[in-house]
């Protein structure tokens, strides 16, 4: 390997973990773009139909969890009790929900039937992408420098690659509606990447609780927005407030922005002009508590 190539590789960091299905996935070590082409088709007639739906580890990002529990008509608590498990994501040490497999010999997906997936229209994004994977490339020497790229996962049992149907990755993402899920979960991924930049260092428990509740429980966050002094403190346009009142997707986006402000002291939400200094002081006091009693100017430092 040339010195130049080695330096280029050392200048990036790959965040694939939340988007892999299992440790047994065979990732083809080629960076792909949206224009990259591949042959693949999955249908009931293929010999390996549903073979990829067992013994897997699926992290449920916020929008994936929202779609599933709305499909099933369940609260967050009920969904977690029946279908989910709370895990700490390696390298970020932040809590996430993973899908609990059945307690059968194959450790099958709980939504798997002989005819396929019974929540297919609302299936997790990682299932939509398969066999394509998405990862984030973060440039270590550039502030906020990152982009997304794709890779191919190939398992020995999969016969979908023998099909004649050809796609570009962009065409595949659109056909599977993965682009919508990517857009909705991008704020969550950015929070994970930001936390990873702090190294494998635990945040105070209150920060983990904030992250978990906002990213898993839209009912909780909506109650917080409309039942506290949130809207008196932050300058949110009225049109957006009305969307947030009834639209869970818009509520999630607001939640991601608030977490960037509350967890990393980024100026993603503007405090209203004329907000009493006492209320600002209370906000600062909460942030200092979250950040281990640092001074206001130190909040968000990663030392």
Question: What is the beta-strand fraction?
Answer: 15-25%
- Physical arrangement of strands within the biggest beta sheet: 1-9-10-2
Our count of helices gives 12
The profile of the biggest β sheet is:
4 strands, antiparallel
Question: How many individual β-strands?
Answer: 11
Structural class: alpha+beta
Overall, the morphology is globular
Taken together, the total number of domains comes to: 2
Query: What is the residue-mean pLDDT, rounded to a whole number?
Result: 83
- Identify low-pLDDT runs: 1-20, 290-303
Helix proportion of residues, in percent? 40-55%
Helices and strands, in order, run as HEEEEHHEEEEHEEEHHHHHHHH
Termini, distance in Å?
Answer: 34 Å
**CA-atom Rg in angstroms:** 21 Å
Please summarize what this structure is:
With 303 residues, the chain is of the alpha+beta class. The protein is built from twelve helices and eleven strands. It has two domains: 3-196, no CATH class; 217-298, no CATH class.
Describe this entry's structure for a reader.
With 303 residues, the protein is α+β, with helices and mostly antiparallel strands. The chain has 2 domains: 3-196, no CATH class; 217-298, no CATH class. Helix content is 41%, strand content 17%. The chain contains 12 helices and 11 strands. It has helices spanning 3-10, 62-72, 76-83, 125-129, 169-175, 178-196, 205-216, 218-227, 230-233, 238-246, 248-264, 277-290, and strands at 12-15, 27-32, 37-39, 59-60, 84-89, 94-99, 112-113, 116-117, 132-139, 146-153, 166-168. It has a 4-stranded antiparallel sheet. Strands 4-6-5 form a 3-stranded antiparallel sheet. β9 and β10 form a beta hairpin. α6 (178-196) packs parallel to α11, α7 packs antiparallel against α11 and α10 (238-246) crosses α11 (248-264). The chain is globular, with a radius of gyration of 21 Å. The two termini are 34 Å apart. The relative contact order is 0.14. The model is unreliable at 1-20 and 290-303 (pLDDT under 50).
């Amino acid at each position: 390997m040339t010195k130049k190539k080695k330096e280029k590789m050392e200048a990036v960091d790959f965040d694939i973990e939340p988007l892999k299905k299992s440790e047994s996935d065979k990732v083809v070590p080629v960076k792909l773009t949206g224009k990259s082409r591949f042959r693949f088709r999955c249908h009931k007639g293929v010999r390996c139909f549903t073979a990829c739906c067992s013994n897997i580890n699926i992290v449920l990002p916020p929008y994936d969890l929202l779609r599933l529990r709305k499909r099933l008509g369940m609260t967050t608590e009920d969904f977690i009790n029946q279908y989910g498990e709370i895990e700490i994501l390696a390298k970020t040490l932040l809590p996430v929900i993973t899908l609990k497999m059945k307690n059968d010999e194959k450790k099958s997906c709980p939504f798997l039937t002989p005819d396929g997936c019974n929540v297919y229209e609302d299936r997790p994004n990682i299932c939509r992408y398969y066999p394509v994977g998405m990862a984030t490339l973060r440039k270590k020497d550039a502030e906020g420098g990152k982009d997304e790229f794709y890779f191919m996962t190939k398992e020995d049992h999969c016969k979908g690659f023998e099909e004649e149907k050809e796609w570009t990755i962009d065409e595949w993402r659109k056909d599977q509606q993965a682009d919508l899920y990517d857009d909705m979960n991008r704020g969550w991924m950015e929070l994970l990447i930001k936390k990873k930049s702090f190294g494998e260092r635990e945040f105070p428990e209150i920060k983990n609780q904030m992250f978990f509740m906002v990213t898993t429980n839209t009912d909780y966050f909506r109650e917080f927005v409309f039942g506290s002094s949130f809207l008196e403190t932050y300058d949110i346009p009225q049109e957006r407030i009305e969307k947030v009142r009834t639209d869970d997707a818009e509520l999630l986006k607001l939640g991601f922005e608030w977490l960037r402000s509350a967890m990393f002291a980024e100026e993603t939400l503007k405090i209203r002009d004329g907000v009493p200094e006492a209320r600002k002081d209370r906000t600062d006091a909460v942030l200092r508590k979250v950040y281990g009693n640092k001074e206001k100017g130190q909040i968000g430092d990663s030392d």
